[in-house]
Design a protein that fits this description.
With 636 residues, this protein is of the alpha+beta class. The chain contains 24 helices and 16 strands. It has a 6-stranded antiparallel sheet with strand order 3-2-1-6-5-4. The chain is elongated, with a radius of gyration of 48 Å.
Length: 636
Amino acid sequence: MPVDDDEAGIGPAAAALLRLIGLIAADTSDDELAAPARDLQRSRASAAAVAAVEEATASARRITRTLAQRRRREAELAALFDTAGDLAALRNLDSVLRAIVHRARTLLGADLSYIALQDPEAGDTFMRVTDGSVSAQFQQLRLGMGEGLGGLVAETALPYASTDYRVDSRFHHTERIDAAVTEEGVHGIVGVPMRVGEQVIGVLFAADRVPRGFAPDDVAMLVSLANHAAVAIESVRQLEEARQALRERSRAAETSARLNGALRRAADAHDRLTGLVLSGGDVGDLAAQTAELFAGPIGIYDAEGGELARAGEGGVRFVPEGVEGSQASRGAVLAGGLWVCAVTAGPEPLGSIVLGGRADLGEADRQLFERASLVTALLLLLRRSVADAENRVRGELLDDLLTDAGRRRSGGSSLLLRAGKLGVDLHRPHAVFVLDCDAQPRLASEANRYARAEGGLAGGRDGRPVLLLPAEEPGTRAAKLAAAFGRVAGRPVTVGASGRVGGLERIPEAYAEAVRCTEAMLTLGRKGEGACMEQLGFIGVLLGEAGTDAFVRRTIGPVLDYDERRGTDLAGTLEAYYAAGGHLAKTKAALNVHVNTVSQRLDRVAAILGGDWNSPARSLEVQLALRVHRLSRAGR
């Protein structure tokens, strides 16, 4: 290559270096930077000069790369500042999200960008907004935790990138995700978490429809944008919450101002009704006052629908579906053209109050009606307290009547006097009734109510409700009691009755007889029925006596002991033998054994009970003992 005057003056190496500096200033490519060193080498300059220029070229390349990175960083920072300003000016969440994905797509020069937000209830992320997407399936995609690249980012809160997602085995591929990615034509993907504090609220993505390796600077820039975006999203969310709270407070203020006068009226009415209760008014007085307040008919009912009081002109009735609706809504409801409010004490239903003649009930009047239900609950609780006190007195009297010790302690005249004050005439014939059921608390309450209505006494003894009632036919009344109490309890109630007794001294015996009758009925499998001992027949009388076990042990006890020691079933063989009428062939068929086995077992019975075990007299006792033993085991 010819050498001009300048090069002759400064030398080829210096000229090459000056040329290299000019190329650096012109921000040329790496290939152009290598030209001075190539030309110097072709000019047959010294090896030292060429080496020096090549070293300078390498430095120049590093300088240009550094300058390029700095310029790019400056551009990214400027873009981020612009993005932050744009996001700060936005107040709508959809606008914020669209701005985020558009800026991400622009900054990375990607084919598309999108955001997937977390759904805390479903436990996954869903595609919220996209920019550049053309696939409907892709735009509706949901990613479970750990599924695909996005699911892994959401689960680990770490950024991930893939040059070609379709063939990248690092990620958990699913048919649904892969189908959407294929339809969109995506290959290169990068995803970064959007975090508020330690919580990941979503994932920001950028993607290309050709394989692309995203540089660390690309990932870092996307992370910075995602951080800005997360803050903006949280700010918009808090702003929307603040706006909603402000709207709610405004509505509350309006409602408060509108109802202020009505609430004062309701409070005055509540004081009026409460004063009525505290001054000794009854349910009828309360119904009359409430009917006057609402200018309509009022009905007050107990928990079972029984009418306690009614006042005012017009028709009202018990509305069970209204009570259920009121209990569910914890307020007054309109049902069947009537306003109904449940009367409760905590979770316990006490009854209901019903208002008629009002097609509509304003908010203030509805609150007043609900206050009336509270006062009704107070009155019913007071009534129940009085009833509970009376029940305790009645129970104590019954307890003294049922025990010899109680009768001796109180004396006959004292017992008659106490009974007379409670409206119980002990000079009439009475019977004792013992009730057995799983629902004892509710049964005891109903027993007290029934006893007061019938002029008798009720209480509890040995874990069972006991009634002392005037009775001409104890067995008939026991059956009626079993049916009536069974309906109340919603399950079988067994009632055992004593015979009629006419004196105080026989009441303890009658109680013992009623207990034995109840136990006998349970043993006989007559649960849910009512009867007296006379109606149970000979087996019932025998099971009701205290000597049943002794009879069984005396008659077949050695056989039962043998079975227990040896693990045999001679007792079962005897039952099958008697059931077959003493026929060996039928017995062996019933037991499914060989006839010789039956003979051997009966020989063993003879050896245990004696040779006359099958004589007419012994046979009757053995059969009876076997039946009593089986029924006793079933009852236990």
